Please model this.
Amino acid sequence: MKRMRRSSPARLARQLSIPKSRGLEAVLKAQLIEAIVREISRRGLTHAGVAGRSGLARSAVTGISGSLQKVTIDRVLRLLEAVGLEASVRVRRAA
Model:
């Protein structure tokens, strides 16, 4: 699997001329999706199996590597749980 280049939310937002919050959302989704895809591969899971565990359609599982705009954060979290992973969030004061 090709590794994604890490980008800061602020840099991504500047490059795409979008609000910083949207840049943060894109970076978070990309990191979570990368972990999901890696875990599916590592464990040899099928998209149908992950779909069954998550309650999502198989096409939703297959499409997670596509457009980040089309993948909602709630679906990403359901898929994360379906492959046996959990996320944690760290909040800090803005600079």
